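Journal club prep — side note

Before the paper discussion, L.F. wants everyone to see what a predicted structure for a comparable chain looks like in token form. Sequence:
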Amino acid sequence: MLYSEQKDRWTRYVIVILGCWLIFTPLTFTSQSRTLYWNDILCGILLVTFGFYALNTRHTWAPWVCAAIGVWLQFAPLLFWAPDALTYLNETLVGSLVIIFSILIPGVTVQNQTFGNPIPEGWSYNPSSWPQRAPIIALGFVCWFSSRYMASYQLGYLNHIWDPVFDNGTLKVITSSVSKAFPISDAGLGALAYTIETLTGFKGGIKRWYTMPWAVIFFGVLVIPVGLTSIILIMLQPILVGYWCFWCLLTAFCMLAMIALTVDEVAATLQFLSQSTKSGNSFWKTFWKGGEPLLNERDASIITYGCLDKCLSMVKGVGLPWNLALSALIGITLLFSKSFLSFGDETTAPYILGALITTISIISVAEVIRSFRYLNMGLGLCLIASTWFLKEFTPLSLALTCGMGIALILLCIPRGKINETYGSLNHWIL
């Protein structure tokens, strides 16, 4: 452990260098914002100070202070409305690098050298493996850059924003009264969240589901509940704003895929914490410091993967049964119903139910939460019931809505093929 900590000392010097960069950047380049001018200098001084503090391995809190400064550097150009793209890019890039060199890179060697089988007990694969995390990180980058593109327009760095599908839809959405109600750029706030999500995906080695439970749970909280909230808000844009936004929808569907790919690792971590607690170990000690997993009869050391196997292993734990594909299609149809169905102009039920149906159908492709598809039964009943209480339906839309509601209920019955095993969680997959 001590040897690894000594090897990671170079990352502390990088933080000091980044602090010096922040100090001298505003002195070198003209900035119109005096607030950001002093913010950069102050943050630079703090990074230099705590970077040197972090050289002492007893100061375990110092790297976390540096990471907090890195997060602040992501937020500051939004709060103070950075006047130019150079300032925004400099602060967000330096902030990301500070997070990487303060808490992401240090400790990786220790994590990789930890003894123990990386495959959870009763599981057929390792949900923390790099092939499993690679598509999640890639999707996080797509969300990050899409949000940053929209934020660049809101902050005044771009004179035009391109929407390849909905003409000026993106422009209408990001300049709407809903968007302007935020005191800062809402797209920039999204870019900040996706930055943290993407970087957290790199934290820890292939055994982090039991060596770093806190990191997996934190990553899961960022991706799942926070992601679901933003997804549903994005999909309800026709109600809130009256327009569709291509980049927002792209972000939403990437987030749905991220959720489906993330839940297995979170489930493995929760399963490990439950088993550890039942064995008499302290929950919080295990949560923060990790522990030893139960032995798995499958020896991961003898498993070898070819190129094709590595590609297929990226989507282990995820399948697309025909019934869930059709359920998602029903949800998407309802989302865009105003464009090609004869629903009344004031009807909002199809949009709301369509957003929920699409969300549940896509995240249910994850085998470990396949039972979530039963929630669509309730939504199917709500879809049918909406025809009784709302008067805006035409005869055609009435028949289509009832038909889709009945079809949605029937499509929830088949479970679909389950290709992997999940230990004690198998009996929850109905």
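L.F.'s comment for the group: The chain has three domains: 1-110, 115-318, 322-428. Keep this in mind when we get to the figures.
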